C-alpha cells in the first residue's frame, strides 16, 4: 500500500489517538479485531446472500417470510460486529487507508448495500407477507436482491484488495 496520506485533521487525530496507537502497538489487538471484522462480514454477507438468492429464485420451496425472519437479524448482528471492528482497523492507518482506492470502493459498496436495504424495507418488504405467501417475488424485489448481491460482493472484493492496492 503506497498511497499519499491525507492531511484531514479528523483522520490525523484518529490515527494518532490512543485508539490508533493501541491497535498498532498491541500484539494481539489488531489480529483479534481483524478476526471479528471478518466474522461479522461473513455473518452479514452470508445471511444477505441467502436471502437475495432466494428472492432471485433459488430454493423456491423455502418461504420468503420465514427465511427473512432468520436471515435479516443475522445480517444485522453481522453488521453490528463488522462495522465497529472495521473502524478500529481503519484507525491504525486512517490517513493512508482513506486514500486507498480499494477502501473507497468498499465504502461505496457498503453505502450502496445499506441504501438498497433501506429502500427494500421501505418498499417491497412491507408487502412481503402477501407475495411471500403465494411464493411470488415481484420484479422490484428481485432487482433489489440483485443490487444487494452486487453491492456486498463488491464490498468483500474491495475489502480484500485494500492490502494490495
Description:
By secondary structure, this protein is mainly α. Helices cover 76% and strands 0% of the residues. The protein is elongated. The N and C termini lie close together (5 Å). It is built from eight helices and no strands. The mean pLDDT is 94.
User: Shape, please?
Assistant: elongated
Main pleated sheet: none
Number of strands: 0
* Straight-line distance between termini: 5 Å
Radius of gyration: 18 Å
Number of helices: 8
Order of helices and strands, N to C? Answer: HHHHHHHH
User: What are the segments in which pLDDT stays under 50 over at least 5 consecutive residues?
Assistant: none
**DSSP strand content:** under 5%
Mean pLDDT across all residues, rounded? 94
Helix content: over 70%
| Backbone structural class | mainly alpha
Topology summary:
Blueprint (H helix, E strand, L loop, with lengths): L8 H7 L2 H8 L3 H27 L8 H29 L1 H4 L3 H22 L5 H6 L5 H23 L4
Amino acid at each position: 500500500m503506497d498511497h499519499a496520506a491525507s492531511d484531514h485533521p479528523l483522520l490525523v487525530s484518529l490515527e494518532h489517538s490512543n485508539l490508533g496507537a493501541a491497535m498498532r502497538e498491541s500484539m494481539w489487538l489488531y489480529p483479534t479485531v481483524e478476526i471479528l471484522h471478518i466474522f461479522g462480514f461473513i455473518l452479514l454477507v452470508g445471511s444477505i446472500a441467502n436471502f437475495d438468492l432466494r428472492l432471485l429464485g433459488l430454493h423456491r420451496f423455502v418461504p420468503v417470510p420465514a427465511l427473512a425472519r432468520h436471515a435479516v437479524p443475522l445480517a444485522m448482528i453481522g453488521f453490528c460486529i463488522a462495522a465497529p471492528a472495521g473502524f478500529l482497523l481503519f484507525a491504525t492507518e486512517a490517513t493512508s487507508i482513506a486514500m486507498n482506492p480499494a477502501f473507497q470502493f468498499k465504502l461505496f459498496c457498503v453505502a450502496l448495500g445499506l441504501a438498497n436495504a433501506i429502500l427494500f424495507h421501505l418498499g417491497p418488504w412491507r408487502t412481503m407477507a402477501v407475495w411471500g405467501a403465494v411464493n411470488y417475488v415481484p420484479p422490484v424485489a428481485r432487482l433489489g436482491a440483485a443490487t444487494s448481491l452486487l453491492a456486498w460482493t463488491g464490498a468483500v472484493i474491495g475489502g480484500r484488495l485494500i492490502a494490495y492496492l
